[in-house]
Write a structure and sequence with these properties.
The structure holds 2 protein chains of 2 kinds. By secondary structure, chain A is an alpha/beta fold. Chain A folds into 4 domains: 169 residues, no CATH class; 67 residues, OB fold (Dihydrolipoamide Acetyltransferase, E2P); 53 residues, no CATH class; 89 residues, no CATH class. Helices cover 24% and strands 21% of the residues of chain A. Chain A is built from 12 helices and 18 strands. Chain A is globular. Chain B is mainly α. Chain B is built from 11 helices and no strands. The termini of chain B are far apart. Classes of the chains: A alpha/beta, B mainly alpha. At the A-B interface, helix 7, helix 8, helix 9 and helix 11 of A face helix 1 and helix 11 of B.
Chain lengths: 434, 270
């Protein structure tokens, strides 16, 4: 089933060791101390987090909402709900190109919240699904290929719980999970009821994060980034295609599901790491989903308007709010290049003007950071020219945006291959009429 | 607020690639100037100016950003040609090389040939009898330094170098090429491997492809040395570089077919 050449058995768990990848030297990560809780005044739901969803907004500007209250649904699949991550007043609804939802901003006030009844969901599969849909937790699942929110009636071949994070300056998942292991176990066990296949908990080698039984399995992954990305795990355990789809979910979303099933309350807070060149020391922070980035860091930096990225230094998201699946925020120095590793010759090159020439130069370095059975340079070329057919033959269905971040980082063309891949995937969806 | 206007998201860009290539070429250039005297400076200035001229003409005609890799091609050109070749012939050959090898495809990184390879091959075809530079020990050392720098920065693929060395040594011993070890230390051969054959644009762009490409280039050098008696190793290197880069896209295509078939098998069995 999996790639035998890389897998070894350690105890009763599979272990994958990767040598391909890039260890970005971005300084020390945050320590495992108790996170700061900054005051957040604005949270937002971002349309760009959910490609292909056509939002039908259920509230208007000025409405009061409780935490957990429905604010949008997917027009094509109205059972899929998007909920308010905090109580407050809808302060702004903005639309982007083609009337797509840009951002739905809530000014946080009060602490009203909806409580759900988790009792039926503890046994019945359908009730569990409905609880996840009602509480908005369904949107934390993403299916591959394509990276969309899964359909209600689909049954994945497997579910991958990503309990690793190899991004530079990331939160250490093991510390977060160990502190709430009961919730994690509960959430993971609930997920086994959504599939007939295995549920893989992907972690770094070390003490198991979960008690395995039946279809709940642990797989360990070690090596430099991207060894912690779900794309890497899925590619080596269960490659997806038009015929087979799997779901992926992050460890903090599993904790949130466990919390929901135990208490009936929605856990909208996430533990984030804040780091980067514009910050003296990385810090842990606990903040609601969709929090305004500037409010997340204002107690940590004195800079007037620091440049903030939702995600790691490799991510190219320049939004004002935290992305749905991001668990870190990077603070850049204003007016200074993003550059994680800086030996002396890098500084020599600094004075060179930035070239506008956008050609791909196929370096062997691409293969060194790409632990997939996919040929990077031909794939990058096909994505750059928009040859969707070739990109699909070369394996683009197995990938999502984040899997190509390192290639974008190394390629002299300065293209954003993640964005190009998204465009290719969406046109494949349109063609196949899914 | 677009972060991308003020920030660099990628480490490499074309200017940096050119700068590193020029840095790798400088010692070879210095040694050549030191040995041949200042006579080489005039052709170098002329060729660099000429190639920048062609790049700016195309940049203006096609409304494309200006690219400075013409300078590195001019330096490389001077290193291969002795000052005995008339200046107009050098200029003609370099113009042919940069235009047909790079500019008509849209500039650096959009073609599949190295401009210097094309230019020198053109010179050797059009003006038979033009001999290439006779190298010395110090130029060899300088070329090795250049290769080491490019290998360390990842601009030169180790697979190409290993593949080339493997087939060169194996076939050279097999066909008992005279003075094999002397030829291996030839600076033109080393420069050719590092800058012409190893040019990532001209080479294959997949890992298995790079090894095959290196093997092919090494064996072509041996066969061309054996078959053409007069022109020697430098000319054989240039023609081997030209032929193997013409075959590189085919090699890549075969690797892609194999990869697609293997991945399809993985999907079914997996």
């Amino acid at each position: 089933m999996f790639d035998q050449s890389k897998a070894a058995v350690q105890g009763n768990a599979l272990l994958f060791k990767f040598t391909k990848g890039l260890k970005l030297n971005a300084g020390a990560g945050p320590n495992g101390n108790i996170p700061n809780v900054p005051e957040i005044n604005h949270v937002a739901l971002l349309g760009s987090d959910y490609p292909s969803v056509k939002f039908e907004v259920k509230v208007t500007e000025g409405d009061e909402v409780k935490s957990g209250q429905i604010i949008c649904v997917d027009r094509d699949r109205p059972e899929i709900r998007f909920i308010a991550p905090a109580a407050g007043k809808i302060s702004r609804i903005s639309y982007g190109a083609r009337r797509r939802l840009g951002a739905l901003v809530i000014s946080v006030e009060g602490n009203g919240e909806l409580v759900f009844d988790p009792e039926p969901a503890s046994k019945d599969r359908l009730a569990l699904r409905n609880l996840l849909l009602e509480s908005g937790a369904w949107t934390s699942l993403r299916s591959r290929p394509f990276g969309h929110i899964p359909n209600l009636d689909s049954c994945p071949s497997a579910i991958f719980i990503t309990a690793t994070d190899s991004f530079p300056l990331a939160v250490n998942p093991s510390e977060i999970i160990t502190a709430q292991s009961e919730m994690f176990q509960r959430g993971a066990e609930a997920l086994t009821r959504l599939t007939d296949g295995p549920v893989f908990v992907c972690q770094v080698p070390g003490p198991p994060l979960i008690e395995t039984h039946g279809r709940l399995e642990i797989v360990s992954f070690s090596g430099p980034h991207p060894s912690g990305l779900p794309g890497t795990h899925i590619h080596h355990l269960m490659p997806v295609s038009h015929q087979r789809s799997v779901w992926q979910i992050g460890y903090q979303d599993v904790l949130a599901i466990g919390h929901l099933l135990k208490t009936g309350r929605i856990m909208t807070k996430r533990t984030l790491s804040i780091g980067g060149a514009g910050l003296a020391k990385p810090a842990l922070i606990s903040a609601p989903l969709g929090a305004k980035l500037a409010e997340l860091v204002r107690h940590l930096t004195s800079a007037n308007s620091p440049t903030l990225i939702s995600g790691s230094i490799l991510s190219r998201r320049d939004t004002a709010y935290l992305g749905r699946y991001d668990l870190q925020v990077t603070v850049l120095e204003r007016e200074s290049p993003v550059r994680p590793v800086r030996p002396f010759w890098h500084r020599l090159l600094d004075w060179l003007p930035y070239s506008q020439q956008k050609a791909i130069i196929p370096l062997e370095a691409f293969e060194r950071v790409f632990p997939f059975h996919i040929l990077p340079a031909p794939l990058m070329r096909s994505l750059a020219v928009g040859d969707v057919e070739t990109a699909m033959r070369l394996g683009c269905l197995e990938l999502l945006e984040e899997d190509l971040e390192l290639l974008s980082w190394l390629c002299p063309s300065n293209s954003d291959y993640g964005a190009l891949l998204r465009r290719a995937l969406e046109s494949l969806v349109e063609e196949s009429g899914i | 607020m677009r972060v991308s206007d003020t920030h660099r998201y990628a480490f490499w860009d074309t200017n940096r690639v050119i700068a590193i290539t020029v840095l790798a070429l400088l010692p070879s250039l210095g040694v050549t100037i030191w040995e041949n005297g200042s006579a080489i400076i005039a052709p170098l200035t002329f060729l660099a100016g000429l190639s920048v001229f062609w790049y700016s003409v195309f940049a203006r005609l096609r409304q494309m950003p200006m690219c400075w890799d013409g300078i590195s091609w001019a330096i490389l050109f001077v290193l291969f040609l002795p000052d005995a070749v008339p200046l107009w012939q050098q200029g003609l050959a370099l113009s042919f090389g940069v235009i047909m090898g790079a500019l008509i495809f849209g500039g650096h990184g959009r073609g599949f040939l190295n401009p210097v390879t094309v230019g020198i091959a053109f010179l050797l075809f059009s003006f038979p009898g033009s001999a290439l530079q006779t190298p010395t020990v110090s130029t060899t050392i300088a070329a090795v330094y250049g290769g080491a720098l490019l290998l360390a920065t990842g601009l030169l693929s180790l697979r190409i170098v290993v593949g080339f060395a493997g087939s060169f040594a194996l076939l050279g011993t097999l066909f008992s090429v005279p003075d094999l070890w002397e030829s291996a230390r030839n600076a033109s051969l080393l420069l050719g491997v590092v800058f012409l054959i190893g040019d990532p644009i001209a080479a294959a762009s997949t890992n298995p492809g790079r090894s095959i490409y290196g093997l092919l280039a090494g064996s072509l050098v041996i066969f061309l040395t054996l078959s053409t008696d007069a022109s020697g190793i430098p000319a054989a290197t240039v023609f081997a570089a030209l032929l193997s880069s013409i075959f590189a896209p085919l090699i890549d295509q075969i690797v892609i077919w194999t990869n697609v078939r293997r991945r399809a098998g993985r999907q079914i069995n997996g």
